[in-house]
Amino acid sequence: MVGVDIVAISRIAAFYEKHGENALKRYLHPQEIQLAKSNATRAGFWAAKEAISKALGCGIGQMCGFHDITLYKDQKGAPHFTLATHLLEHFNITDHSLSIAHDGGFAIAVVSIQSNSPTAHKVQ
């Protein structure tokens, strides 16, 4: 399963400027807020969570909320994520990967999720 999302960095910057830290708390965990020091990173994190939910086939909503996805970086700064237990179990996820890029005023995220579930995209 693959998910992709792109967002204008200026959109996330305006959201942050209008609502401050409360904007970040809407879609980021406290440890993610510590990592998201620039508007480009904040936009990349937004795109990543949207792309992950699209790869699952459910989007951000009742089954998968922003806080059901946790982003982190490894020692080399590469992005990774973990999912809430209910998502791992429902979709029988075996592996996943994430890439985030920023250029030309946009942030884009691409996600690949492997699942052993024959009905992975059939959200109930």
From TrEMBL:
It comes from the Bacteria. Residues 2-110 form the 4'-phosphopantetheinyl transferase domain. It is an enzyme of class 2 (transferase). Its EC number is 2.7.8.7. Its cofactor is Mg(2+). GO terms for molecular function: holo-[acyl-carrier-protein] synthase activity. Belongs to the P-Pant transferase superfamily. AcpS family. Its main location: cytoplasm. Transmembrane segments: none annotated. Mg(2+) binds at D5, E50. InterPro entries: 4-PPantetheinyl_Trfase_dom (IPR008278), 4-PPantetheinyl_Trfase_dom_sf (IPR037143), ACPS (IPR002582), Ppantetheine-prot_Trfase_dom (IPR004568). It catalyses: apo-[ACP] + CoA = holo-[ACP] + adenosine 3',5'-bisphosphate + H(+). This is Holo-[acyl-carrier-protein] synthase. Transfers the 4'-phosphopantetheine moiety from coenzyme A to a Ser of acyl-carrier-protein. It comes from Sulfurospirillum tamanense. It is found in: Cytoplasm. SUPFAM superfamilies: 4'-phosphopantetheinyl transferase. Keywords: Cytoplasm, Fatty acid biosynthesis, Fatty acid metabolism, Lipid biosynthesis, Lipid metabolism, Magnesium, Metal-binding, Transferase.
